[in-house]
Design brief:
five-stranded antiparallel sheet; 25 helices; disordered N terminus; disordered C terminus
């Protein structure tokens, strides 16, 4: 989807696309650990609250038991057994007073504390009932309520365990004197009440877990909103949404994609199933795949763009609760996401061609510079292809501009479908399109060009009655054909010119054009006379190829010329003429009259026959003049020498020193400037100062590999 991309993309290496493990980056592991700590803290806080409530309930029933038991054993007068029971009753009352004080002071009992108090209730109550023999009166019922109420603090298992203990005590102590039906009835009652209490306890536990879950979800949504509020960049927003979508569901991995005009583009995380993404975007509702282990949910839509979140679980299917959580996330993120989509759409329109949807010329140049710097740094190849729609003016004239627009759109579609995913496809201008072929060698670029030719033939786009769309293509590659990004485009453009000159509907590579000129000087001069600016880069390269030890000389001179021109604020509209002088300054060497130092005059004569402005011929003639008037061929001095000639002459001398000629080794740029300055009167002082300023700031005009090695050695 070149030209419609929202990401520039890299996939998202900062996004949490799976649950963190020990192998994940420390930041993600720390995030997960912190979330666990908070969840445990919430759980412990609510569990302590539940036990505190249970402790207060147990305390009330314990006092009730103490009062009932004291009355039961003392109403009929004191006995020796009653005295022992009263002693135990006093001890238990004292313990209960201490527990009551703790409860009133807000003590939060631990799990072990609750287990201990429940055990004491069972033991003390059982012993007291045994001593008093009151298993058949209200004291037993009070004892039962104490134990069951206390067991609510500890859950269903504790309640059933307490019921079992009471039943065993009752069977042992009081069942012998009771009828079987009465015994069974009491045991059943004890068990039923215990089970009911346990179920109530479990329901309370479930509510507690739901409260924790809701608290965690609210916390997650709050964090997500804070994270999204810090940026309106679409990549950052999507990364935050994906990270929290994984946290709020049972998903193990996921991704976010954009649907733009039915085209799907991954923005963050893993790749998603494109048909499912389209269905979710079209329907506006979730789509499940693979027995509900994959869930695709639309997040927000606006300006013709829909954002879709996809999640995948390995362990279990997604539940309706998972869907509710993700929908809650989408609802919470809707406003921020809509703003981000709108912002990104506006940013996209600034870098896209409104008709074709491809990158516009400015963005093409920016991305070319980026890829060129990357190729230089990594030592990887880079190619540029410029495509011209054959006879497009005839289409507009005969069929109208509306049909011409449709042809352009169809051509852009052919390029998008044929180019590789990581290539940069753009509308270069008018009826010309362009592709930056990342890491493509000349052979690889030629393969892409042939595939593109086949694709446009297969598309059968009607341009006019009886005619179909065809392409003319020009291809150039770095480092074989150019030393700068600008020169690479110029080389591809001149290869395109050759393809059109030879009849259109074909591809030509820049190296082939250069080789053709190297082999035939007559053909070189004929092309110069006929085409001028359209072949000047190829002529400069061919001139270097014809002279031993001069490979890349012209390109390096041009690079230095452009550097000095920028330093002295040379008029941008005149820069193309300055480049022409730099590329053609040695063209006179192929003329029979251009030997023995006369090549400047011969070059002027050749250029005068070509379609160049007069200043280009004058600049070539004067590029060996000196500031002090001791140069050739006319002995011009100072400002009488054309500015263009002064710049090219300085750049050529600098390139000779830094590249090394003959037996002389290359000189470092700073030393080369010093040596040029030492030749008093040779060069314009202002231009020399501009070159020195650039070198002192760390600029290093392009040179051969041996110059780089020399710099590194120093």
């Amino acid at each position: 989807m070149e030209g419609l991309t929202y990401s520039g993309l890299k996939p998202a290496n900062a996004v949490l696309t799976s649950r963190p493990t020990r192998k994940d980056p420390p930041s993600q592991v720390n995030l997960l650990l912190w979330q666990d700590v908070r969840a445990r803290a919430i759980d412990q806080h609510l569990d302590a609250d539940r036990r505190a409530v249970g402790e207060r309930v147990a305390e009330l029933f314990r006092w009730l038991f103490l009062v009932v038991f004291a009355a039961a054993i003392n109403l009929n007068g004191l006995t020796s057994t009653a005295l022992v029971s009263d002693g135990l009753l006093v001890v238990w009352t004292g313990l209960n007073v201490g527990q009551t004080v703790l409860v009133l002071r807000g003590h939060r009992p631990s799990h072990a504390y609750s287990v201990a108090t429940l055990g004491l209730d069972i033991v003390f109550g059982g012993v007291l009932l045994h001593l008093a023999g009151t298993f058949h009166n209200a004291a037993f019922l009070a004892y039962f309520l104490v134990v069951i109420a206390g067991s609510m603090r500890l859950g269903t298992v504790a309640a059933l365990g307490a019921a079992l203990a009471i039943s065993l005590i009752y069977l042992y102590e009081g069942a012998a004197t009771q009828a079987l039906s009465e015994v069974a009835g009491r045991v059943f009652l004890v068990t039923a009440v215990a089970l009911s209490t346990g179920l109530m306890s479990r329901e309370l536990e479930r509510e507690r877990r739901m409260a924790i879950s809701r608290a965690a979800q609210a916390d997650t949504l709050r964090e997500m909103n804070v994270g999204m509020a810090s940026s309106i960049d679409i990549k950052d927003v999507f990364e935050v949404i994906l990270q929290h979508g994984l946290k709020m569901s049972s998903a193990d991995s996921g991704g976010v994609a954009l649907v733009i005009d039915d085209q799907v583009e991954a923005v963050a995380g893993t790749e998603l199933d494109e048909p499912a993404v389209r269905r979710a975007a079209q329907r506006g509702e979730a789509v499940f795949l693979e027995q509900r282990q994959t869930m695709v949910v639309p997040l927000a839509s606006g300006d013709g763009v829909t954002a879709v979140l996809g999640l995948k679980a390995q362990s279990r299917p997604f539940s309706n609760e998972d869907l509710l959580m993700v929908n809650a996330l989408a609802g919470s993120a809707a406003v921020t996401l809509a703003n981000a989509l709108h912002y990104q759409r506006s940013a996209q329109e600034a870098i896209s061609d409104g008709l074709t949807g491809l990158f516009n010329h400015r963005e093409f140049r920016r991305r070319l510079e980026t890829e060129f710097v990357r190729a230089q740094r990594r030592g990887t190849p880079l190619s540029v292809m410029i495509i011209d729609l054959d006879h497009f003016k005839t289409v507009n004239d005969s069929m109208g501009h509306q049909h011409g627009d449709e042809v352009l759109i169809a051509a852009a579609s052919v390029l998008r479908q044929t180019a590789r995913a990581h290539d940069v496809v753009a509308r270069y201008g008018g009826d010309e399109l362009a592709i930056v072929l990342v890491e493509a060698t000349p052979a690889g670029a030629r393969i892409v060009a042939e595939r593109l030719m086949d694709a446009v033939h297969a598309a059968q786009v009607v341009t006019s009655p009886g005619s179909q769309l065809t392409f003319s293509l020009g291809v150039a590659s770095f480092p074989e054909d150019a030393l700068t990004a600008n020169e690479l485009v110029m080389a591809a453009d001149q290869a395109l010119y050759q393809a059109k000159r030879e009849g259109r509907d074909r591809c030509r590579v820049f190296s082939g054009l250069v080789g053709q000129m190297e082999a035939s000087p007559d053909e070189m001069l004929a092309m110069l006379t006929a085409s001028g600016p359209q072949v000047m880069v190829a002529i400069g390269r061919a001139l270097d190829g014809r002279r031993p030890g001069m490979a890349g000389h012209t390109s390096r001179v041009v690079a230095v010329v452009e550097t000095v021109a920028r330093q002295v604020d040379y008029p941008p509209l005149d820069l193309e003429d300055l480049r022409a002088i730099a590329y053609l300054h040695d063209v006179g060497t192929v003329s029979p009259t251009g030997q023995d130092g006369a090549h400047a005059v011969a070059g002027q004569e050749l250029i005068a026959k070509a379609p160049f402005p007069p200043r280009v011929a004058a600049g070539v003639r004067s590029h060996h003049e000196r500031w002090d008037g001791a140069g050739r061929p006319d002995g011009l001095a100072g400002s009488d020498i054309p500015l263009e000639a002064r710049i090219v002459g300085l750049a050529e001398a600098f390139e000779d020193l830094t590249s090394g000629r003959g037996q002389r080794p290359p000189v470092l740029p700073s030393l080369a400037v010093d040596e040029l300055a030492a030749d008093t009167g040779a060069y314009d002082p202002a231009l020399l100062a501009a070159l020195r300023s650039f070198v002192d700031q760390g600029g290093l005009p392009l040179g051969p590999a041996r110059l780089v090695a020399a710099v590194e050695a120093v």
